[in-house]
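Now for our target.
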Amino acid sequence: MGDGPHALRVRHSRLNACMNRLTPRQTSWNIEADSAGLSGDLLSFSTGRQLQDGIQLDTPNAEDPGSDEAKTDGLAIIFVDEQTPAFYGESSNIVFTRYLLRAISAVSKVKQHGVAVPFKDNGSIKCNSAPFSPQHSPQHSPKMPQLSVSALPPEKEMDTLLSAYFDGYGSQFPFLHEPTFREMYDECKASSFNKVRRTWLGLLNMTFALASNIDQSAEVPAKERFRKSYIFFMRAVSLCNESSMQTVSLDIVQYLLLAVLYLQGTQRSIQTWNVHGILVRTALALGLHSEQSERGLDPIQQEIRRRTWLTIYCLDKLLSVAFGRPPSIPDEYIVVRLPSPWIFTTDMPSHQRDNADISTEFLNATVRLYQIVGRSVSTQYGMNLGLTDQDTDESTAIQAASAMRQELRRWASGLPPHLSLCEAGSESLLKRTDSNRLRVILTLRYHFASILIHRPLLCATLRYLTVKEASVGSGLPYRIQLAMAEAHECIRSAEKTIEIVHRVLSVQKAGYSNLGVWFFTMFYVFNSSLVIIGRSVLVQHGVCIDDEATSSPVHSFLTKAVEALEKLDKDNRLVYNCAKFIRHLSERQGGQGESASTCICLIALEADMTEAHHAAAEQRTQAEYQGLDYEQTFPSFEVPALTGLVDNDPGMAQLFKAQLFNPLFEEFNFNLE
């Protein structure tokens, strides 16, 4: 098969693409190296050659389906155009969306033929795609303005950015000790940054990058924030990259941790995962997993190390769920104590102490919640090892979900009163205090975990309706009815998530709301929207949902999700396309659109560029590329461009075009031209 005509055409196309990349028409990134010898740092991020005034970074092979240019994002929530060798397992939204699409297709077949056409599901996400088309993925490296990696913004701007970081990420992921960090920062300012560790300066730039990305208080358009944050990010990379490959230190671990958090807000799925792997190995090499390595250190340093390790653990569980891959940190590796309150000096104001104590309790609650998430991945998703048995007895799945739900409820009942979960109608959602903001964020994380725990039962119902011969409106077997009853918890959590975000953003501006980081909010809303779409599929199959908590029309929740996302950020293409995806399905539920399957496929088509557009893009001059939108010029870790066929669309379902247009959907007769 590998030597057939199709394989030869694919190889020929890729060879042509590689040759095209070497032609003079392709421009490269030129980043000025400072006098500290940064060329070596940048070289390790590229295969480029050194120039007199900097480094020339080669464009990655965009036509390689294994390339990071496969157009995924940092949380694996995007449409991609072609087949990729990347693995996405059972807990990922990619697999869940395949269940949705198959069930939608089954509805169409049932309506046409009166009985479902059985579909053989092997549980794999692989597909036989059409021959790869290099012309479908034109990549260009626009020349960016030269920047000095040793430069820093004015002192007033640095002070503002640092405060924005600790008010945002610093409170939600409190592993940096603010007094110690600010003390070092003040010392560096006093010496005009002439006496500063290279790695610490990189860490400082990374905090600036994160703050620039998420700070919406000034209502600056997203593309301006992204451009600004990219400059800080690249400075941090230039300062720390070589050291991160050659040395082990707490600065390096924290730099990598912030880099992973940063990449989650971009479209760099593969880079996010790979850098996270480096982060985990570096943390293990430093001994952060063991309290023995803390001996001889002062209490504050011990606490910083524990918090850093536990934050990495929580991040590992989130990425494991989002990508559907085995976690890098087994639960057995968590043997360090939970965070303790910071040790304060006597001159610290009381309100700062109170906020720090609440932040510590928030981190403790988050760690315990993600331990439950880890057990769910282990017991309900087979550790994402790809061994999930599609014929698993529903009673086993029900028992597992019931046990995990009890754990989740015990966790919620053990929260301190000032961090207790919020209801959608609670006034706490709208009172902007530090404790209320952490309550809202913790509530959204709780519902995320609840959806994860109960979604296997929704999937079991969808699989039954898809694979079995079931007529619309026919009664369900008792075991499926039980699974559906348990799946209501999943639907309720999805509805509450959307209601909470919608209510907050209907009253408060995004930059002053209690929702936290914008792309995590987007993650939760879209994750919930997929579940609501799953509920609509059940209704289309004639499955009644006799539950007061889920009695509102599907259309109303999808409409609220769209409205919330439209208010979440300004001029943000990621959020815009996410809302656009949901809007199509919302219109379908309101009777304004085509079939649900048609809507999903049309969204993918609208996000894709036409062949004529591709041809025109190939002929643009360098001057035209100077004016590219931020989505096309916003580079990340080692790849010099993020040009996307789908405009960086972050639909939580990462769907391959070949999966949307495979024999399963032949009845819709879509034309790709």
Notes: Strands lie at 29-31, 49-51, 54-57. The two ends are 28 Å apart (CA to CA).
